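--- STAGE predict ---
source: upstream dedup step, 1 unique chain passed
mode: sequence only
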Amino acid sequence: MLRVKRIGLRDDLRGVVASINSARWDAANDMVPYRLEDLAAYLACAGTVFLTCQDGEHFLGMGSGRIQLKPYDRERWFYLDELDVAVDQRQRGAGAALVKGFLELARAEGCIELWLGTELDNAAARALYRSLEPSDEEAFVGYNFRL
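--- STAGE serialize ---
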């Protein structure tokens, strides 16, 4: 049975970090080792959300995002920033369970929409997101400015 859990500062962050760092990741995950102090600092920021997915004792994946307030009409929306499933745990429903967990959380927090993006060549992610029947799919160009 898949279990999605919201992780907070009161949880066993040392165990969460150990699970993440012992999972198998591939180059597509662009994973760097997690550190306890970094995860704690992230969780301390207002509006941030971190979810994990497990199947019993097996760590399957995780995701992070944040609740944003628009600068007009006080509309709230959720930005799903990262979604990662361990390479040896894929095709078990963890990605879908995590996205559904974020959708439920966003609804409960009064958000009017959830936004996420992925690379055009990430066929697996795009198939997953389409299977969850999004309201719409947009093509866009992203820019990154290294500072």
